[in-house]
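User: Can you predict the 3D structure for this chain?
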Amino acid sequence: MNNVPKIKIGIVAVSRDCFPESLAVNRRKAVIAEYEKKFGKDGIYECPICIVESEIHAQQALADVQKAGCNALCVYLGNFGPEISETMIADWFQGPTMFCAAAEETQNDLIDGRGDAYCGMLNASQALSLRKTRAYIPEEPVGDAGQCAEMIHEFLPIARAIVGLQNLKIISFGPRPNNFLACNAPIRALYDLDVEIEENSELDLLEAFQKHQGDPRIDEVVADMAKELGHGNKIPQVLPKLAQYELTLLDWIEGHKGSRQFVAMANKCWPAFQTMFGFVPCYVNSRLTSRGIPVACEVDIYGALSEYIGTCISEDAVTLLDINNTVPRDMYEESIKGKKFACDTYTDKEIFMGFHCGNTASVLPAHYGSRPAC
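Assistant: Here is the predicted structure, written as structure tokens:
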């Protein structure tokens, strides 16, 4: 997936100056050791600034993790922690930040070896709220080294989604079809998420498509499409136009993403598309989606946003289906009632049929078909 960010998370340990520094240092090292043992060394960085006890230390730690190329941060309370400087780190960093804290290790060392990070975590939560600083706090944020390592790993999909949105441009073509108010998408909400948007006319798209006629790359794309379709290649004569359209979208992305690293699209696909372009675009949309570039149809901008978030979280192709129709009673009785799906059973009021025209990437049916039964 070239259209999703790679996360490198920096671990910064903090300490209240009335507690021994060694508590935070040793506990940080233990978390790093557990993380590397369970998940490997890639994508994690241990900030060598021994401990953050003050605002100056916070500045030093922040400069260090930024120099190391970290785009996500874990503030680790090895003991009670300094409420002001530890939350300043999250405020200044501006990227995805999480907080977690150390549990006490043994009943035999509750004097010099007690860190009170449980209390510190509660105070850190309040301090973040006072500053209106957004940070991720796990549901149970206090744990031993192994548990904290797992919390950090569970934060990575969240961090990918946040960094992805901060660097995302959604490109759209055409207004949504008439009577499709469900695809209404006020752009203010996108800006609130740091997402950029470029809105274009479908005439812009048609003009760009026509300029790609005779593109020397078309034959190569046609061959790739034919290979993917295999026995399903029932209308081979349409493949050159589909290849021309795919190249049009990819070139538009490269020429228009501007300062943004990642792109999703929401494009007009009917009713005039078929008559003006001479084909339906669903297959091309599905091919781009399989590469991590969601292309929502019907100018469903929020749908494209949702698909991109799912792509960042899963690092896999995603799809978007309409809640379309109810399941006939006789089908429920014959094929669903009493059977387990995803390790659960469902009543006839809990199920529906999902539908879409064909934007789903071809890899997804194979994924779902190979899922193990309970």
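The first strand starts at residue 9 and ends at 14. The mean pLDDT is 90.
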